[in-house]
Amino acid sequence: MKKALLLLAFALICISAKTQTITWEKINLPYKTRVYDMVVNNKGDIFIVAKSENSYADTAVILRSTDNAITWHEVSRIWNSSVVSMTINNRQEVFLSNGGFWKSDSTGTIWNEFEVGGINLSYSKIKCLGSDSLLVLGVTSGEGGNNNILLKTPNLGLSVDTLYFEPYCGTTITTGVEFYPPNNIFIAITDFPMMGMCGGVFRTQDDGLSWTEIGLSDQQISGVTMTEQGNLFVSSWQSLTPNTSTPGIFILYSGTNTFAQCFNYAFITDVAVNSSGYIFASFNTYHGTFPIYLSTDNGSTFAPCSDEVDGIFRLYCDKSDYIYALPEYSENFIYRTASPTTGNNKKVINTHKINVYPNPSYDKITVEVPQELRCKKCTVAIKDINGKTLFRDKKFFENNLTLDVSAYTSGIYIIEFSTQNVTFREKIVKY
Asked: Cβ distance 301 to 282 under 8 Å?
């Protein structure tokens, strides 16, 4: 198992209601660090916020990659390394919370701090509504105990409304805040075991004038995500009432008022759902390894879709349906699927099966046709990182293939050889 973790990429076939092959790869980071959160903008630029490489410094660093995670650049450092949440608005400006609040420009290179309500919030989660409107869910300290609070600002903190306030609620953590148009706001609050029953999922449809408790007050909620269809997915690490309830993954379907449980398992740290409705679940027990699990049939069945890895605490699905997995502990890498996780039942072979040289290249590349495809009719294609096909040819291949990429702009591309049943992929870099 340790040997497997040293590989740059690893794959395992998931057997579920629909067979789906997921190939995962390791994205190397500049140094060993704990990654707290991440976002990917519409151009494919990746932003991660992580603890400083100096483990004694109470600062966090913001790293950005503009070349599909080949290189990373530090764009800012902020005080207080306890970053909880990162989000992005429709102008592609990035926001993060760490007790205070920070915002980038549209390039991600300039960061400024701003206030929301003039208070510091621990365990704060933020959600962008359009451009300058934000929902902020967090915990404040009061004389009688902790207070759970949801704030809304339409103008980056210049004016603030309190939509939800629950005082003196034990040792709670705000797990997530989600919005579904036109007026549905959901908040998820969890409590530590033996500290009370203050948690659960709550919904307002009138901008905070009234709230309805949807359920899961008996669960230690670990992750929340909303799909484009308005379905709310919630993961639970463990039950707060183990004699009467079980943890797992729960779904609140759009237009309903009751959660349905689709996965009965403990120690789930997060849930992510792609545009095809595939459900990914991560685990962490603090004393062992777990694979990432996948369901391709709306939660009816789950099966492993990765090797066993040390604990994952966060999953992220970008607009192109790549899934990212962030380790719980300090590492010099994060995991990502090697290709978008949309519905595709072909067998995908590990990327290192194709030999391409020179790579990187200025003009021409030579591709060694995989032995399995020689003397067979297959399709060769070159795609950009967004999946757009730039070149395609279908014929019998017997020998190595030379392709001219001189007309392409500098960047990352994917070369594919495929038949009806199998696909070989490899990244190429054009200077």
From this structure: no
pLDDT in tens, 114-171: 888 777 677 788 888 877 788 888 877 766 567 788 888 888 888 888 888 876 566 5
Q: How do residues 82-111 score in pLDDT, each as one tens digit? A: 767 899 887 888 998 877 888 888 778 888
C-alpha 291/C-alpha 305 separation (Å) is 7
pTM of the entire predicted model:
0.74
Tens digit of each residue's pLDDT (9 = 90 or more) over 161-198:
888 887 656 656 778 889 888 889 999 988 655 455 56
**CA 292 vs CA 288, 380, 388: distances in Å:** 13, 31, 28
User: How far apart are the C-alpha atoms of 257 and 302, rounded to whole Å?
Assistant: 25
Read off the pLDDT band of 343 (50, 70, 90).
low
